[in-house]
Structures are given as C-alpha cells and as structure tokens.
Automatic annotation (TrEMBL):
Residues of the Bacterial bifunctional deaminase-reductase C-terminal domain: 2-187
Xref: PANTHER family: BIFUNCTIONAL DEAMINASE-REDUCTASE DOMAIN PROTEIN (PTHR38011:SF2), DIHYDROFOLATE REDUCTASE FAMILY PROTEIN (AFU_ORTHOLOGUE AFUA_8G06820) (PTHR38011)
Name of this chain's protein: Dihydrofolate reductase
Domain of life: Bacteria
InterPro entries: DHFR-like_dom_sf, RibDG_C, Riboflavin_Biosynth_HTPR
C-alpha cells in the first residue's frame, strides 16, 4: 500500500497559507504571503528533491493545483523544480474544475473523494505527496488517510491564516526524524502513533 505524505512549510503557529509569495493566496485577507523567503537554505531544496524521488504522484486541492500549475507548467524543460513537478502524476480534488488541461499529467477527482483516495493508496507505487491544500489535508486527517507529516517548521509566527491541522482534531503522532537547518528551519517528520 502506498503512503500519503503531507509535505508542508508551516509556521510555529500552524499556518501553511501562501508560503511562496505575496499574491499566492490572499483569501481571508491574508497579507503575510512569501513568509518562507528569508529562511531559504539549499537543504530545503535538497529535502524537496528527496521527497520527489520517494514519490510518483501529487494529490492537491484545486487552489494549490492551480497555483502550482501556473508556476511549473510554463517552465522550460531542464529546470530541475519544473521537471520534477511536471513529470509527476497529479490528482486534483475539485467540484468546480471541468478540465485538467492547464497542467500536464493531471487527473480530476470530483466525487467520492475519500473512497477515491483510499483506492489510490491501494494501488502499487511510491508515495503520494500533498502540499498546501489545507481543506483536502483536513478531510484526509479526519478520515485517518495520512501516513506521514513531513514538516519544514519555520521560526515565525504569522498570527493567522489557513492552518495545517483543523480545529478539534485529536491526532497522536510519533516523531521519526528531526533535523535543524542552518537558517533556523527545522525538518520534523511524524507518523501516526
């Protein structure tokens, strides 16, 4: 059975919204976009490529899929980040999309989301990685479908925004790796306890 791995940039106060840029996701009046930039270190890129090497699919909510597709689809061949993202099979969960033509290798999941994702997990293959996609992560966490949380925890408090873990979720976890990075970010990996 494949593992679903949630791979997120997360602030100390559990926020995952708009780590990459000011205009990435302003929903709810969020104005802190791009909060990861001051803490970049090459070890973060190395972690990204390691996660991609251990996976063969991405599972994303509509907004994250559109943001990623808009950034990676137009990248020229030979860009290491673009090549890694564009080559992966992508599954996008959405009730509003009608086509996945905006980003190559994408498949739409419109209904029976939990059952469809259980079926994906049962297929042979490598890990399935989720990033961003707070609504989808909340749904999967509530249905106990997440096998691992691979978190890059940033030394910043944002004071609001979309959270990694939903309110009211009780979830015992077991730490399997902890590694501080030179920029103050800490890689923390957890599995279900």
């Amino acid at each position: 059975m494949r593992k679903i791995v949630v791979s997120e940039f997360v602030s100390l106060d559990n926020v995952i919204q708009a780590p990459g840029g000011a205009e990435e996701d302003t929903e709810g009046g969020f104005t802190q976009g791009g909060w990861t930039h001051p803490f970049w270190h090459d070890d973060i890129g190395a972690h990204f490529f390691e996660a991609m090497n251990q996976s063969d699919a991405l599972l994303l909510g509509r907004k994250t899929w559109q943001i990623h597709g808009g950034a990676f689809e137009p990248m020229p061949d030979g860009d290491p980040f673009g090549d890694a993202m564009n080559a992966r099979q992508k599954y996008v969960v959405s009730t509003t999309l009608t086509t996945t033509s905006a980003w190559r290798n994408s498949t739409l999941i419109r209904e029976n989301v939990v059952e469809e994702i259980r079926a994906l997990k049962a297929q042979p293959g490598k890990n399935i990685v989720i990033d961003g996609s707070s609504v989808l992560v909340h749904t999967l966490a509530r249905h106990d479908l997440i096998d691992e949380y691979s978190l890059l925890v940033y030394p910043i408090i944002l004071g609001g925004g979309k959270k990694l873990f939903p309110e009211g979720l009780h979830l015992p976890l077991r730490l399997i790796e902890s590694k501080p990075l030179p920029s103050g970010v800490v890689l923390m990996r957890y599995t279900r306890a």
